[in-house]
Specification:
The complex is a heterodimer of chains A (310) and B (405).
Chain A lengths: L1 H53 L16 H9 L3 H32 L4 H9 L6 H12 L4 H8 L14 H27 L2 H9 L4 H29 L3 H6 L11 H11 L3 H29 L5
Helix pairs in contact in A: 1-12, 3-7, 3-9, 4-7, 7-9, 8-9, 9-12, 11-12
Chain B lengths: L1 H24 L3 E8 L5 H14 L3 E8 L1 H13 L6 E5 L3 H4 L7 H6 L9 H6 L1 E2 L2 E2 L2 E2 L3 E2 L1 E5 H6 L11 H11 L13 H8 L16 H15 L12 H10 L5 E4 L1 H10 L4 E5 L11 E2 L1 E5 L6 H11 L2 H9 L11 H8 L6 H10 L10 H16 L5 H11 L2
Parallel strand pairs in B: 1-2, 1-3
Antiparallel strand pairs in B: 3-12, 4-5, 6-12, 7-11, 8-9, 8-10
The chains are: A mainly alpha (310), B alpha+beta (405).
Chain lengths: 310, 405
């Protein structure tokens, strides 16, 4: 009994001492974190709150904002002829880009991991576009796709009759997707490749001995084992593609017509070209809600296909 | 410790108040000048700023230069955060959106009986809003047709007359189109300046957009047909249209395009052929041309408006105009100094003086409102649909109209 009490007492003392230590360290940690806390508050929390407030005003950058209630949101959903096409374009881009990006990057990752030599070189080559500035990439591709540019020259000399990509309503979005793929596939390729390399060789060897074909080994062993990484790649790619802006700003400015106008570009156009900051803020919040909903949906869906070891 | 802090603060406030008092008497005044431009322009703008100090030794002007596109994003942000400075560069087409950040100048003019008549009248009205002048111009210009004289000669075409009609323009564009060469390279602004020259209006009487009126749709339709039907011009892409037309012209791929005197010197330098300029083609009625230009105003929120007004007069004065004109940077808004541009910078381009004098004589007010930017963006974004045949001119204009407030 006495022994138990003594142990309990010692525990209480250590807890107390630990608490005091925690408090001291907590304060130190707080001061160490302060610079980034100030940064986050100033540049993230305050602007986020400001944009909520702004979305209920008619602020035009110059002059005093006036509170207009839900007028911006009502206009957005009922009166703006451009809003639904823009939402449709954004979802179209996200869907096509996401599917192609995952397929291509997974394909490349599998191919690279099957190579006997030069794996590292290919990883670097495919990763290069990831650290090339997006605007620079878009400018170069815009020059390639421009009417009478290099792409037209190539299709012309191959006797392929294709309208110019940037001035055709149906093809303009495809041009944007091609450029986005070129710039974005590398990151997922390296990610998936690393995951594939982590699959234990013993599993693969056991499967081989049991007579599983290469096809079965991929679908039944490697893919389920890399599914957490695949899930991460899918979620992140979906989020960034819903926010697409750089390529569109440089290559098409949302045109021709509204063929490539997406939510991200619309926020810029309304806010910084037409100076409708309040209205732009309300679009930004609709975009935020869409990204939240889609990400939540993906998390719900992951139960069906993502396998965690534990 | 707290007491010492308070004392230190008090001392600091005291000395700065004293310093301000001293400054108010005669000490140097530093003015900030918001300006756009690229690297190559910096020395030029600095030399203008130095002129101010030569004239008023106590005033020092510091140019803050940003790129053209960034300038218009920065300006409202600077204005709403109170950081705008003292002197602000302004383009006539942006005046309806930005006049509120500038000081009306008429009261200042009254103090020293300033002669506003020294400036070209169309650009003075371009830098005004509701009858009040908000800026003094440093340059001015109408939209013009730039043409390749060598290609005209090779095709056996006579050079454009001052009062050439749209039909003459179309005939030339069609004749100059052959193989992979185009008679004309279209871009977004052609559908604004072109129809006006033909007598059309994009506004109704109360200065609101009325793009579906018969006159405007007909005139835009004629320009559209040059590309959509005659294939005399390539379709411009909504991304970066302006560069494409001037690039095609410079490389001899297109014989004509529409631009202004602000690009003329660089276009002539970049061309390996002889270049000429002509007024925009007219419709059935007499010629009429819109002009645009830029100038400087005084920030309404500035601290040193008196000094800024003095600096403004130097920056838009005869000496500054001579510097900018001789360097080929600007056709001066000051009438008396325009000859420096004609005789020095533009001496190699045929018909400059005649064409510009003719255009100024037939200038018409450039009608704008506070949603002008939206209109220009929508023209750039939607016009390619009419040019490539995906939509009709009427359809595109109705679509744009429906998106304007």
């Amino acid at each position: 009994m006495a022994v138990v009490e003594r142990i309990a007492a010692t525990r209480a003392v250590t807890r107390k001492r630990k608490n005091r230590l925690d408090r001291g360290e907590g304060r130190t940690a707080f001061f160490f974190l302060l610079p980034s806390l100030i940064g986050v508050t100033l540049f993230l929390v305050v602007p986020i709150i400001a944009s909520v407030v702004l979305s209920f005003t008619n602020w035009k950058l110059l002059g005093q904002p006036q509170f207009v209630g839900f007028a911006n949101y009502i206009k957005l959903f009922t009166a703006d002829p451009q809003f639904w096409p823009v939402v449709r374009n954004t979802l179209f881009f996200t869907f096509e880009y996401l599917v192609l990006n995952i397929i291509i990057s997974l394909g490349l990752a599998v191919w690279i991991s099957s190579l006997k030599m030069g794996q590292r070189w290919f990883r670097v080559i495919f990763f290069l576009p990831t650290f090339t500035p997006g605007i620079a990439v878009a400018i170069v591709w815009m020059l390639i796709f421009a009417p009478g540019g290099f792409f037209d020259f190539v299709t012309g000399s191959l006797a392929i009759h294709l309208p110019n990509l940037l001035t055709d309503q149906k093809l303009a979005m495809q041009a944007v997707i091609i450029v986005s793929l070129w710039a974005g596939v590398g990151y997922n390729t390296v990610l998936f490749n690393a995951a594939l390399d982590m699959v234990p060789a013993s599993y693969m060897e056991a499967a081989r001995i049991d007579g599983a074909s290469a096809w079965d080994r991929f679908w039944k062993i490697r893919l389920p084992l890399i599914s957490p990484t695949l899930f991460f790649g899918t979620v992140m790619t979906a989020i960034t593609s819903l926010q697409v802006f750089d390529q569109i700003y440089v290559m098409t400015r949302g045109g021709p017509g509204s063929a490539t106008a997406t939510l991200g570009y619309s926020i810029f156009q309304k806010g910084f070209q037409n100076f409708q900051m309040g209205y732009a803020s309300s679009i930004a919040w609709v975009m935020f809600a869409m990204i939240m909903a889609l990400t939540a949906f993906q998390f719900w869906l992951q139960r069906k296909w993502v396998h965690y070891d534990n | 410790m707290k007491l010492s802090l308070i004392l230190a603060t008090a001392a600091l406030v005291g000395t700065s108040a004293f310093a301000m008092q001293v400054q108010a008497q005669d000490a140097p005044v530093n003015l900030t000048w918001q300006m756009w431009g690229d690297q190559s322009d910096q020395a030029l703008w600095q030399s203008l700023a130095d002129l101010v100090t030569q004239e008023y030794p106590n005033i020092k002007v510091t140019p803050q230069i940003s790129g053209w596109t960034d300038y218009w994003t920065r300006l409202p942000v600077l204005a709403s955060s109170g950081e705008i400075g003292d002197i602000v560069a302004m383009q006539s087409m942006r005046m309806p959106s930005f006049y509120s950040i500038l000081e009306p100048l008429d009261a200042h003019f009254a103090t020293d009986s300033f002669d506003i008549k020294a400036f070209e009248p169309s650009i003075v009205s371009g830098l005004s809003h509701d009858g009040a002048v908000y800026g003094l111009p440093y340059d001015v210009g109408p939209w013009l047709v730039f043409y390749n004289r060598d290609m005209f000669k090779a095709a056996g075409l006579a050079e454009p007359a001052m009062d050439w009609t749209f039909d003459d323009f179309k005939a030339a564009a069609d004749k100059l189109t052959s193989g992979d060469k185009f008679g004309y390279a279209t871009q977004a602004f052609d559908y604004i300046a072109g129809p006006v020259a033909m007598g059309a209006e994009y506004f109704n009487d109360s200065n609101q957009f009325d793009l579906t009126n018969a006159g405007y749709t007909a005139a835009v339709g004629k320009y559209v047909d040059l590309t959509a039907v005659d294939k005399a011009s390539p379709v411009f892409a909504s991304g970066a249209s302006a560069v494409q037309a001037s690039g095609r012209f410079a490389s001899g791929n297109a014989a004509m395009y529409i631009d202004g005197p602000w690009s003329m010197i660089s276009a002539a330098k970049g061309a390996s052929f002889e270049m000429g300029i002509a007024p925009l083609p007219r419709g059935d009625g007499p010629s009429r041309f819109i002009t645009a230009g830029s100038g400087f105003g005084i920030a309404a929120a500035g601290q040193h408006k008196e000094e800024a007004y003095k600096a403004l007069q130097v920056l838009t004065g005869p000496k500054a105009a001579e510097i900018l004109a001789s360097a080929g940077r600007a056709l001066p808004g000051r009438l008396a100094e325009q000859h420096f541009w004609y005789d020095v910078a533009a001496k190699d381009v045929k018909g400059t003086r005649e064409t510009l004098e003719y255009s100024f004589a037939h200038a018409t007010p450039f009608r704008l409102n506070d949603t002008w930017n939206e209109f220009e963006n929508l023209i750039t974004q939607y016009m390619p649909l009419a040019l490539n045949g995906d939509n009709t001119t009427d359809g595109v204009l109705a679509d744009i109209q429906s998106q304007l407030p």
